[in-house]
């Protein structure tokens, strides 16, 4: 009788170890699959950024050639530069004002939660 409880405990230890090792193996496989998918997604995102940059460069060249039909080359380049700078400044001001508004809204929501 004294040998049986030790044998049962040993079987239980082996069974628990096997279950834990199996669960860890499955978790490791899931993590590796997720990492692979994330890596592929990151590569696709980087490639899309490169393609978008090339598309913008092509669009700029097409626009520059069109403007050069009406203005001398250096005037056309200056006109596009001024247009791009104006658009960038306008978008930056828009983004700043909306970011500030979002910050104020977040602060107000946190204050309201703190009061409750």
The strand count comes to 0
Ranges where pLDDT stays below 50 over 5 or more residues in a row are none
**End-to-end separation:** 64 Å
Globular, elongated, flat, extended or rod-shaped: what is the shape? elongated
Strand/helix succession:
HH
Estimated structural class: mainly alpha
Structure description:
This protein folds into 2 domains: 1-70; 72-116. The chain contains 2 helices and no strands. It has helices at 3-68, 73-115. Helix 1 (3-68) packs antiparallel against helix 2. The longest helix is centred in the first third of the chain and has 66 residues, at 3-68. It holds the Pfam family Phage_holin_3_6.
Helix and strand topology:
Elements: H1 3-68, H2 73-115
Helix pairs in contact: 1-2
In short:
Helix content is 94%, strand content 0%. The protein is an all-alpha fold and 116 residues long.
Which key terms come to mind for this protein?
116 residues, mainly alpha, 2 domains, 94% helix, 0% strand
